[in-house]
Each structure stands twice: as C-alpha cells, then as structure tokens.
Amino acid sequence: MKPRLRIAFASIAIGILVLCLKVGAYLLTGSVALYSDALETIVNIASSIAALAAIWFAAKPADSNHPYGHDKAEYFAAVLVGVMIVLAAIMIFRAAWLGFVQGDRPEYSLEGIAMNLAAALINGAWARYLMHFGRQTRSPALVADGKHLMTDVISSAGVLAGVVLVLMTGWTILDPMLAVVVGLTVLWTGWELVKESVGGLMDEAASSDVLEKIRLLISEHGEGALEAHDLRTRIAGRSTFVDFHLVVPGTMSVEEAHEICDRIEVAIAEDVPGARITIHVEPEHKAKHSGIVVL
C-alpha cells in the first residue's frame, strides 16, 4: 500500500479513537461545549474518509479520458472537507442554543476532563504530522485534513479551559458561549479551506519563488537557444504543469533543438517535483526580445 493511503487509513482510525474519548468526556460531564467538540470529531472522520477516497482516485495513472492524470480529485475532497466543517459549525451552534435555553450546569469529572485532554493531545500530534507529510508529498487532501484537525485542537483547548472555569465559578452561561466561539472558529476554517481548494481547481499558477526558479533553470541550461517567452504554469495536486516557447537559431537542426529541450526538462524536473513540461520550439524570427534571456 502506498504511504499516502496508509496515512489516510491511519487518520480514520485516530479519528475514531478521538471520538470515543470525546463522547466519554461529554457523558461524564454533560457539558454542551464538550458535546459540540465531539460533534466536530464526527465530521473529522467523514473528512478523513473523503480524503482517503480522493487520494486513492488521484493515484490512478493517466488514461484516455484523463490524459493529464487524476491529481485534481484531491481538490474536490478538500472542498468537501470545507463544506463538512461548515456543517459541523451549524451543529455546534444548535448545541450552543440548546445550552442557552436549558442552562444545565456541567458536572465535575476529573476523568472526563482527562479524556478530553488526551483527545486534544492525540489530535494535535497527528494534525502536525498530517500537514508536514501532506506538504512533502503535495497532497491537498492530507493538508486539508491536517488543518481541520488543528482547528479541532484549538477549539478543544478553549472548551476544556472553559469547562474548568464553569465548574470553578458556577457560571453556566460560559458553557454555551464557549460552544459559540468553537463554532465561529470552525466556520472560519471551513471558509479558508474551500477558498484555497477552489483556487486549485481554477488552475492557479505556481508561486513566485517556483516561477523564478524555473526562469533561472531555463536561462542556465538553455545554452544554444536565444530566448524563452510566454512561460505559464498551473498547479494540479502533486503536478506542476510548465509550458513556454523556446526560440532557437533558424539554421539549427531539429536534433540540436531537441537536445536543448531535453537538457532544460531534466533540470526543471530535478528542482520542481512533479513538473510536467511542454516546450514549443520557434525559429529566430519569432523572437519577442523579452521574457527569459538564455545565458
């Protein structure tokens, strides 16, 4: 099994473990804030399942219907995770409203507080690893899953502190108020994830650092050519599509021009992981005298 699939499966298993701990904490305390925290974890598990499905589909090789591969499937999963986060926020707001109306006071339970703390620590460690691994392997689905878990950690820490404060002061109004704060935090995270993922679906260009690196590589390894212009890039999951026009002397043979292209392609592929390069060779009279000057 591929590493990214193993990580996705592990994320589901950890989500189930954390859910059990949070439900236990809620049952022991009766806190509506802890209940809202447990509700968000259900969405975490659903998000992890969506990420697993997307990673599996994105790993499929290119075929006649999808000649550029299936990498963008991960962006759909990331959008779905964002939508699920928004749904989680709605469920949390509902739980908070019920807390305001009913005004029940949470019960003190050292075991319940300890269970919620353990769940937050597990989520925190796993979220950091997911984001690190997702960025290393250029997996939008895993990065989105990690960001989602990190918001869960932040909200869990706030909820836990608030529950302890309610138990110490007896101010029951703090419990649903904290649930509202959790809901707002979760809602913001969902919006950020959807916005970022839609950008990927809309073929955003590579970062300015990557573009500058590509320009430098073309300039350094394009010896024999005259210039390069109309450089374009787009990101699709783990792939970075690169295309540009390379101007060569009109008297140059096809074989010589091909050797220059090969040299440039190898250089870019080594420095830009997942690069897919298309070079359009043009004769000297097509030069624009702008763009990338070959050294």
TrEMBL record:
Pfam families assigned to the protein according to its UniProt record, in alphabetical order: Cation_efflux, ZT_dimer
Domain Cation efflux protein cytoplasmic stretches: 208-284
Keyword Iron-sulfur in record: no
Major location (coarse): membrane
Keyword entries, A-Z: Membrane, Transmembrane, Transmembrane helix, Transport
Residue span, Cation efflux protein transmembrane domain: 9-202
InterPro entries named in the record: Cation_efflux, Cation_efflux_CTD, Cation_efflux_CTD_sf, Cation_efflux_TM, Cation_efflux_TMD_sf, CDF_Transporter
Entry's localization field: Membrane
Bilayer topology term: Multi-pass membrane protein
Xref: Gene3D superfamilies: Cation efflux protein transmembrane domain, Cation efflux protein, cytoplasmic domain
SUPFAM superfamilies xrefs: Cation efflux protein cytoplasmic domain-like (SSF160240), Cation efflux protein transmembrane domain-like (SSF161111)
Transmembrane segments: 7-29, 41-59, 75-100, 112-131, 152-171
Family according to the record: Belongs to the cation diffusion facilitator (CDF) transporter (TC 2.A.4) family.
Protein name: Cation diffusion facilitator family transporter
Natural source organism: Roseibium porphyridii
Lineage: Bacteria, Pseudomonadati, Pseudomonadota, Alphaproteobacteria, Hyphomicrobiales
